[in-house]
Structure formats: C-alpha cells, structure tokens
Write a structure and sequence with these properties.
CATH superfamily of the largest domain: FAD/NAD(P)-binding domain
CATH architecture of the largest domain: 3-Layer(bba) Sandwich
Radius of gyration: 23 Å
Distance between the termini: 60 Å
CATH topology of the largest domain: FAD/NAD(P)-binding domain
Number of domains: 3
Length: 443
C-alpha cells in the first residue's frame, strides 16, 4: 500500500514524485518507457540541444563583424546527435538520482488503472491512497493520404535521424514545427512550412509573428494552406482555393499532440474530447484520482505539468494550493528566439479588456546591440490594464527571450502595477532592461 501511485514519469509525474517523497510520503511511480517522459527523451531537452548546435554553426559562419574569423566552418550531424544523446542520458540519470534521493520506488511497465485506486503493472496489483495520472501526450497524425509514408516523420522519429536530408517540409507552424524548421534551416537545409492558419505561432503577438517570419529568411512559408495528400516526395496542398504542390525529401508532421487517455475510457473518469477533466486542484471526478500535464489538455507545456504535479501533491497532503493559468510563460527556441507570458493585445480585445501597450526595440539596448548588431530583430511589448495599471502581458522577440520571461511571469503572477515595476532595479547592461524600458514607455 502506497500513499501515492503516479502513472507516468514525465515532468508532471517525476516532479510530483520528488515533492511527495520530500514530504515523507511513500510513492510508487510507474513508467512504460524512460524516466523523464517525452520532454526529456523526445522533446524539450534533445530539441534544445540540437537547436543550440545549429545556432553555434550559424553564429560561427556569421561572426566576422564581431572580429571573429572562424575559417572553414563545418557541421557534423553525427557528432551533434552524439552530444544530444549524452545530454539526454545525463539528465535521465539525474531524474533517477532524484527518485532514489527521495525514496521513490520506480517500476517499469504499463500501468492499468483499476477500481478502488488500484493499478495493475506486469500482472501485479498495487494500491494507493491517491493516484496521479501523468500519461502525457503523443504526436497527432492527421488522416491525410500518404501520411504513413516512409519519409513522413513525427518529432519522435526526426530526433533519431541518421542523415541530414537535402530538403524538409514541415506541416504545422506551431512551436514544434517552427523549432525544427529553424534547426534545419540553420544547417543550410531547404525548408518549406505548410500552415493551415493565416499566421504561425498563434499564441504570439501578431506583430512579433510577422517579424519572426521575416527574419527566418531561409524558410519558405505557405500560410492559409491545407495539406491534401503526400505522394512520396510530392506534397499537394490547397491555397486560396487552388491546388499547389512542393517537393521535399523528408516531411515532418507537426500539427499538434493528442492526450494519452487510451485505456482510461472505461474507468469512469470524466474524459471530454480525449482529455481528462480536472478542477483547479487537479482532482478528477473520481475521489482520490488526480491528473496532471498534457493528459488534461489544459496547458501542454512541461513546466505547466510540473506545477500541476506540485498542486496535486499539495492537495493530497492537505496543503492549500490551486493551479492558475494566467501567468504560464512560453518560449520558442528558434532563430530568433521568442517568449511571452500573459495576455496579448488581441487576447485582451477578445475578452473586452481595455489595455495600454508599449513596445521598445532591443537594438536600443546596449547588450543586445553588442551581441547581435544593428540589423538583428528584437522587440519587447508590454500589455497593461488601462484602468488599474496592472501588468497583463509581456511579449519578447529576439536575444535570450526564454531567459527573460520568468521575470515577466513573476511580475504578472504578483499583479504588479506599472509604478511598482518602475521601482525595480535591473542590472546594467543586461537584456532584461528591455522590460523596464517598455514599462516606462507606457503613457
């Protein structure tokens, strides 16, 4: 008998296990694959490792204006993949250490949820006072003729690619699609992006999305375009009512992810449109059963899953807590990088909120100019409630945006007002000053 049984060892599951172990609970975590889940093994960590290699290659080729002449620069995909695998292995060992350190029992196998807060794993029954479901998500494959072709990959398979293609077609202009498009474009691969929506990255500020497309000069974008079929290397899509086609050696299917609820439909769980329904305490409709992360479909980000896991554990342990979604940051590790948190200007308009906005160019920031030059794109935009002066959103494009957005998230979560942010001292010279400068630009 365990205090808590956790199904799935991704960033929702293993963080929940670590927190529960620290609180003295007996914990069993069940994982059918590898510790760390998709994020560590086939998502966040390996993609960012490869993206960094691609960025280093691009920087080396374009470093002359900064007095650095790299000479004959080349890129070795096999060595980059080897480094990626080493990073993943090291991180996976780190998760294993955390489980041991916090006395969490790890069991490999497929967990079947049974009645009475029991699970069956490898033919044996385990029982817990509480159960946390953290089964994550998987790539969604649309029902398009030819989508099962040998040259059609998802984000899972492309991370094990042995040889670089000469050309790549990316289906989907969301985060996953744009990161892989950026990676392969930086390596000199011909890249086409086919996106059904009128703009890439729908969570971004619309102006920032347009600038990002403009800056990604090596990528051909086909917006408002619906994929019709794949026939070997030929892709046919509908654009402005007309059939168009393009050719690519490889096709990356990146149109979204689906929650892993297979096998849970007959358990009595409230599952709506393929996602487990939970409240702000991560409780399902079944007493003692919680769900966190992608399987809920509420915020399909690794850091959201981790926070959901913490909320579930706190509620199980009698600590008052709840999940909030107004200040969940996001980041896209493309070239250029982008990140944001809170409402965009269009989000605010959609819900009828009156806002004030201000933007500053990053090239006016000393550190950004020194590191990226005069022509590099970079912008910080802030969204403020027109009546209360409370910060509602911060949106960044360029530089190390992903490293700045946590500070913005803290401000939004704390409901800081413009005058309060103006009193915060930012280090100089640092790119973080663009947030302060944008706030000072609010009229």
């Amino acid at each position: 008998m365990y205090d808590i049984i956790i199904i799935g060892a991704g960033p929702g599951g293993y963080v929940a296990a670590e927190r529960a172990g620290k609180m003295g609970k007996s914990v069993l975590i069940v994982e059918k694959d590898q510790l760390g889940g998709v994020c560590l093994n086939r998502g966040c960590i390996p993609t960012k490792t490869l993206l960094n290699s691609g960025k280093l290659y691009k920087q080396a080729k374009n470093s002359a204006p900064y007095g650095v002449h790299a000479g004959n620069v080349s890129f070795n995909w096999e060595e980059a993949m080897s480094w990626k695998n080493e990073v993943v292995k090291t991180q996976r060992n780190g998760v294993s250490f955390l489980m041991n350190e916090n006395k969490v029992e790890v069991l490999k196998g497929f967990a079947e949820l049974l009645e009475g807060k029991k699970v069956s794993v490898n033919g044996k029954i385990y029982e817990g006072d509480s159960i946390i479901i953290s089964t994550g998500s998987a790539p969604f494959i649309p029902s398009v003729p030819g989508a099962d072709g040998a040259n059609v990959l998802t984000s899972d398979e492309i991370l094990d690619l042995e040889k670089l293609p000469e050309s790549l077609a990316v289906i989907g202009g969301g985060v996953i699609g744009m990161e892989f498009a950026s990676l392969f474009s930086n390596l000199g691969i011909k890249v086409d992006v086919v996106e059904m929506m009128e703009e890439i990255l729908p969570m971004m500020d619309k102006g920032h999305a347009r600038v990002m497309r403009r800056e990604m000069k090596g990528i051909n974008f086909h917006l408002s375009s619906q994929l019709l079929k794949i026939d070997g290397k030929k892709l046919t899509y509908l654009s402005s009512g007309k059939e168009e086609s393009l050719e690519a050696d490889l096709v990356l299917m990146a149109v979204g992810r689906r929650s892993n609820t297979q096998g849970l439909e007959e358990t009595g769980l409230d599952i709506h449109k393929g996602k487990i329904v939970v409240n702000e305490k991560m409780e399902t409709n079944l007493p003692g059963i919680y769900a966190v992360g992608d399987v809920t479909g509420l915020s399909m980000l690794a850091h959201s899953a981790s926070r959901m896991g913490e909320v579930a554990v706190n509620c199980i342990c009698g600590v008052q807590d709840r999940m909030r979604y107004n200040a969940v940051p996001w980041a896209v590790y493309t070239s250029p990088e982008a990140a944001g948190c809170g409402l965009t200007e269009s989000d605010a308009a959609a819900v009828g909120r009156k806002v004030k906005t201000a933007s500053v160019l990053m090239k006016h920031n000393g550190r950004f100019l020194a590191e990226h030059g005069k022509s590099a794109a970079g912008t910080c935009k802030v969204v403020v409630d027109a009546e209360t002066d409370i910060l509602l959103g911060v949106h960044l494009l360029g530089g190390i945006s992903s490293e700045l957005v946590a500070g913005a998230a803290a401000m939004i979560e704390s409901e800081l007002r413009v005058n309060e942010i103006k009193q915060i001292i930012f280090p100089h010279p640092s790119l973080s000053e663009v947030i302060r400068d944008a706030v000072w630009a609010i009229v």
